[in-house]
Amino acid sequence: MGRSGAGKTSMRSLIFSNYSAHDTRRLGATIDVEHSTVQFMGELSLNIWDCGGQHKYLENYLNEQRENIFGNVEVLIYVFDLETASRESEYQLYDDCLQKLGIYSKDAKVYTLVHKMDKVPDPEQKEARLELYRQALAKRSDLFKPEVFGTSIWDHSLYHAWSQIVHRLVPNMSTIERHLEKFRTLTDASEVVLFERATFLVVCYMTADMSITQSKYMTVSQAIKTYRNKCSAAQLTFQSFEIRNKNYSLLIEPFTKSTYILVITSDPEIEPAVTKANVKAAQLHFQDKLMI
Ligand SMILES: Nc1nc2c(ncn2[C@@H]2O[C@H](COP(=O)(O)OP(=O)(O)OP(=O)(O)O)[C@@H](O)[C@H]2O)c(=O)[nH]1
Ligand SMILES: [Mg+2]
Known about the structure:
One of its GO terms (cellular component) is Gtr1-Gtr2 GTPase complex. Component of the GSE complex. This is GTP-binding protein. InterPro entries: Gtr1_RagA, P-loop_NTPase. It is a single chain. By secondary structure, the protein is of the alpha+beta class. It has 2 domains: 8-169, P-loop containing nucleotide triphosphate hydrolases (Rossmann fold, 3-Layer(aba) Sandwich); 173-290, 2-Layer Sandwich (Beta-Lactamase), CATH 3.30.450.190. Helix content is 42%, strand content 22%. It has helices at 8-16, 55-62, 66-70, 87-104, 123-140, 157-169, 173-186, 215-233, 272-290, and strands at 33-40, 44-51, 75-81, 109-115, 147-151, 191-196, 202-207, 241-244, 249-254, 259-265. The chain has a 5-stranded antiparallel β-sheet, with helices on both faces. Strands 3-4-5 form a 3-stranded parallel β-sheet, sandwiched between helices. Helix 6 crosses helix 8. It is elongated, with a radius of gyration of 20 Å. The two termini are 30 Å apart.
């Protein structure tokens, strides 16, 4: 949800339909609501409602269609355009949406994305602008405690936000995390990451170094997705990826039906062939036992 031109269809197309950031310039305004269903992590079906943000549609969502639009919502993603002409009217619309959500889906989770952050190149100013939104939004939504992310289709910030969103939707996440950590320790890997196959969003990661944060892997998501699009434009298929130097070896391989795995080992004694054999050995376990 969000005003026309905020970037809703662009982000959906980047994450779920292999668009590049450049391709989004061709998108027209969304007419009414565009429904799509994507399979995610095996059994999970995501029903995405991309609600066109032109005034006439917004009026309709908040009035005649309110129960249809705001009923049975699991997650509402509200997209603010950083460059909006009138922040007050934007906040008003946001309040109206959350008020309807409070009536029809009070258990929904709300994420607010302050989008087009690339328009503010200076990192300090970026953070200051985001903080303004955080403070304003914290005052407004007492029923929902929205998480606020700064995003842009031009960098990995969009992958960061969407990975957080879908992470919460995968039902058996804690079991997957436990098994991944076991795999990591058994194979002496320093870092292991699972990516969803189609979107390349980070599903979960395990690392020996607790100071590593998820954003490190978002750059990998963005890079691989971009590289994979380039491969398919050249009618080639991306298979796997390997780097080896004196400090570490890194491997990205297809893993289960719905995931890719990234394994980093820092022990020079461990040959990449051994890591590959370990990945193969774990494949069936993750696929059959965890159904992913
Ligand atoms: N600079 C910049 N432009 C963006 C970004 N995301 C989207 N855009 C541009 O914003 C324009 C509008 O994007 P859309 O995705 O069609 O907007 P929308 O929210 O779906 O609009 P409606 O369908 O009318 O509600 C497009 O030209 C995109 O290329 C971003 O992160 N940064
Ligand atoms: Mg749209």
